[in-house]
User: Fold this.
Amino acid sequence: MLNPNLKLNTKLFDTDVEIQPTRKGFGEGLLELGEKNPNVVGLAADLTESTYAHLFAEKFPERFFEVGIGEQNMAAIAAGLAVSGKIPFIASYATFSPGKNWETIRTTCVYNKANVKIAGHHAGVMTGPDGATHQATEDIAITRCWPGIEIHVPCDAIEAKKATIASVNTDLPVYLRYTRDKTPIITTEETPFTVGKMQDFWVTDNPEVTIFATGYMLYYALVAAKELEDEGFPVLVINVATIKPLDEEAIMRFTGHTRAIVTVEDHQVQGGMGSAIAEFLAKTNPLPMEFVGLQNTFAEAGPWKEIIEKYGMGVKSIKDAVKKVAGRKNK
Amino acid sequence: MAEELHDEKLKQLEEKAEQGRELLIQTLLEAGSGHSAGPLDMMDVFIAFYFHILNHDPKNPDWPDRDRLVLSNGHICPVRYVVMAMADYFPLEELKTLRKLNSRLQGHPHRTTLPGLETTSGPLGEGLSQAIGIALAAKLDKKNYYTYVVTGDGELNEGNIWEAMMFAGKIKLNNIIMIVDRNNIQIDGFTEDVMPLEPLRAKFEAFNWHVLEVDAHNIRAFVDKINEAKAIYEKPTVIIAHSIAGKGVDFMEKDFHWHGKPPDKEQAKIALDALRTLQGKIESEHK
Assistant:
């Protein structure tokens, strides 16, 4: 069942569950930060409205900079603002930022310890009809290897707003990953959110497998858990809202009983959230794992929910992975 | 405006530039790797900045109202390190640690390692954008400091530079002054062979910049151009500083092979002798 202690959305499995895009949470969070902190500034590279940065830009035009289609310039200008005491948020699609401007961010923001918040939008195959050029499916891999960065992948619009606001709690760079389409609201305003903490969203008495899910794919994992429970196959589902720093204590705690893992993410399985968990467990407590995500391939244009199914990332694939890893455990 | 550059001060600065070149050769020799040509040819400009133009306090490098000097082509950092040491940011002795383990003098500048550096640089084309960010912060905070940014000329091959030029022109950023070290060389050869930049003035003008040109080795002329740039209100200003690559060491001058290597012991001896005798014009005091 949904963890009653976390005050999650009780209507989550209803057909009329509220849906909102996580990028909207970014826009609302940035707006709230702008009201609270005069040092917060915004930059966009010709994608102001689709990143929801327009909410901030309209309210604080003197603190918003439209740089045109130039993501390297955007990142380095932000670095200059940051070393001068500002807290810049740079908003674009994740394929371009931190994709196209990767080295600029590495040098001028991360190595330079500049307080820049990188908002990567339209992440994952969810960017659907635009095709693989615009589906950022490697952004976690290319940011996770940076020393000192924080990475947040919120599961819904409410958590996205909380993560955006919490990103200013550190003076170091943060990568925030958002998605385009409306997805179910999983949490509520009352759900606790702490940077760097994993939470067990689906709990059960004697779980056989632990599912770690990140971003909106958490909803798919929760649906799979519910169906599995109905089939007499209890699992845990953990929300990985922060990928770096990795909540190693929680990984140990949530796998202590199950001793088998499925990871779920809209990202390449190489280098993503699942890899992060595998890297940790390989040196502490190796467990059988299955990885749901893009399997070393680019996806294609199409309705995103159909892409999810075609590329083996849907509810059925998660359930199959759970049963497969449970079988490996028992050998 | 910087104080007037009277004749006596000018003579002092020119002597410091010669002294700086000697320190530079010794520093590069000790480091055993690094770049020679760019640091030598930007010595007069950096002496002018640290000893006349910049509003700064070496004992308080984080002073919020200081002028900012951004070095975009980070590989010429030996010139900055040498002049910073001469200006008392850190002891001259520390120059011997350049490029060595546990040193604050990284092979390319790392802002958080050495107080007084404004940015981290090395990968080319990123300094102008960072300088724009710093200058924008001055506008937001209603501060009067100037942001200067030194770039290479080969560096202008980078697309990021042109993104930044477009943006500064768009917002008529008038508290930033860019200095291009026009020494005509880059690693693979002469700039006009590798990737032609000319007509460079026309390119900047087309991007809505005010363009000045100067002899990078004439300190008085350079200071005058900085003052002229400050008088331009409606546009960002670039000073194309025409320099002789490897200036001061005759066998290095105008030779692109010296872009990315230090002198060996014998070459350093010849270079130092040349510098100490002003290319044979005077007797060396160090013989």
Summary: The first strand of chain B starts at residue 68 and ends at 71. Chain B has a mean pLDDT of 94.
